[in-house]
Amino acid sequence: MKVRMPGGPNYLELRELVRGSRLHTVCEEARCPNIGGCWERRTATFMILGDICTRACAYCAVTSGRPVGLDLDEPRRLAESVASMGLKYAVITAVNRDDLPDGGAFIFAQCIKQIRKRLPECKVEVLIPDFCGNWDALAAVMAERPDTLNHNIETAPRVFKRVRPKGDYGQSLALLSKAKAIDPAAVTKSGMMVGLGETWDEIVDTMRDLRAVDCDLLTIGQYLRPSAKHAPLAKWYTPEDFEALAAQAKDLGFRHVASGPLVRSSYHADEQHAAATAASA
User: Fold this and answer.
1) CB neighbours of residue 66 within 10 Å
2) pLDDT (tens digit, 9 = 90+) per residue, 49-105?
3) Residue 22 · residue 1 · CB < 8 Å
4) In b/e form, how buried is each residue of 173-206, taking b as 16+ CB within 10 angstroms?
5) How many CA atoms lie within 13 A of 213 on its CB side?
6) How large is the average pLDDT for residues 6-14?
C-alpha cells in the first residue's frame, strides 16, 4: 500500500488555514493514511466539538477523556474556512460528546446552516455519532437537510462490543432507519472496517443489515492499528477481497460502494454522493 507523502503546496496551505482558524480535522487526529493525497485535492474532513472524545473505541487514534466547554463560534469559523477554500463538498464529523444533552447536534446543525449561508453551492456531508439514541438530536441535524447523512456501523455484531464498548449495533442501525423516516429522500451512508476478527459471512450479513434500513452508500476499508495499545490486527484483506466485497455490496442494492485497503469514511465522498443522486434521478 502506497500513499502520497504529505507536503505539497495545497497540503501546506490547507494545514495553515486549518490551524489559523483553530479547527481540527479527522485527517490529522485519526492519522488517516490518505491525508497527503486528499489535502492536495483540497478536500478535508473537519472534526468539530473539540479534539477530546468521551468514548475510547479500541481502533481509534483520537484522544479520549473529558471534554471541557463548547465552542459556539466554531460553526462560523468552519464556514468561513470552507468558503475561503471554495469547497464544492464539505465533510463534517465530530468526536463523541456524551457529556452534552444533545450530543453536539446543535453545533452540527449550525455548521450546515453557516456553510450554506456563505457558500450555498457547497454540498455538506455530516458523519455523526449515535447521539446516544436521542432522536430529537438527530431530527435537529436532519432539519438542516445535509446532502449526505453518514453514520458508521464500523464492524459486525460479534466484534462490535469488543471494539466499541460504549456503542450499540442496533442503535446505529436504528439511527440510519430514523434518518430515512424523517426524510425519505435523504442520502444515507455507513462505513465498515475489516481485519478486526470478523468472518466474511459476518461482513456480508452486516451489509444486509444496512440495506434493511435502506442505507444508500457504503465504504469498506482495511483496519490499520494506530498503536500497540489499540485493538490487534487479525487479518490483511487483499485487493481482490475488496473487489469481491464491493461486488456483493452492489448486488445487495447499495447505490455506490467504495471498497479498498485505504478507503475511509470520507474517501472521495463527493463522487459517492454524485453517484447516489445520479442513480436516483
Assistant:
1) 7
2) 988 999 999 999 888 999 988 999 999 999 998 898 878 888 999 999 999 999 999
3) no
4) bbbbeebbbeeeebbbbbbbbbbbbbeeebbbeb
5) 29
6) 61
According to DSSP, the β-strands at 45-48 and 89-94 are parallel
Please tell me the total number of residues recorded for the chain in this structure: 281
d(CA 167, CA 253): 26
Residue reference for cell 495553515: 16
SS3 state at 246: helix
Give this prediction's pTM.
0.88
Q: Report how far Cα 69 is from the mean position of its chain's Cα atoms.
A: 23
Q: How far apart are CA 50 and CA 93, in angstroms?
A: 11
Hey, what's the cell of 87? 469547497
Could you say which architecture CATH assigns to the domain 9-280?
Alpha-Beta Barrel (3.20)
The C-alpha cell 466474511 sits at 200
